[in-house]
Specification:
The protein has 175 residues and is an alpha+beta fold. It has helices at residues 14-23, 32-37, 52-59, 108-119, 149-173; strands at residues 26-30, 38-48, 69-72, 78-81, 102-105, 123-133, 136-146. 35% of the residues lie in helices and 29% in strands.
Amino acid sequence: MAGTKAPGAQKPTAAQRAKAEADARKVIARNKKARHDYHIDDTFEAGLSLTGTEVKALRMGRASLVDGWIEIDRHGEAWLHNVHIPEYAQGSWTNHGPRRKRKLLLHKEEIEKLAVKTREKGHTIVPLELYFTKGRAKVEIALARGKQEWDKRQSLREKQDEREAQKAMSLRRNR
């Protein structure tokens, strides 16, 4: 029975497709440099406290995490510094500053864990990815240790070896 469907298997309705699309993770910006410069120990998902024009600029898909970093202040709040969200073109006097510090929304236990780890030598917190999920702006942050120059060369060598192995296997398969 080639043309029959399994019982209960139906095409999703327009509303179901719209919900699935809204729930999908829409990446706005990635910090590729962070994965090259740091060993990633642990990752966290944090919400962002943004103004209206910042959200509109992010929905246009423009942001840069390259020079961003996270600080935990003495009041136990996490702040995202030096992330560039350009001004919204149709904004007026209510527009935001492109590199202002933005509050991260994390659980108290997560902030305490990050604060304890960053007091250790060599640990820092860096943003990895900025994205929308379920209509909310989120940032993936990582507890990271800095790499030495030889570590960076080693990881580049490993990536190159992996690419060569994949290429050899695909050539072998295509014969």
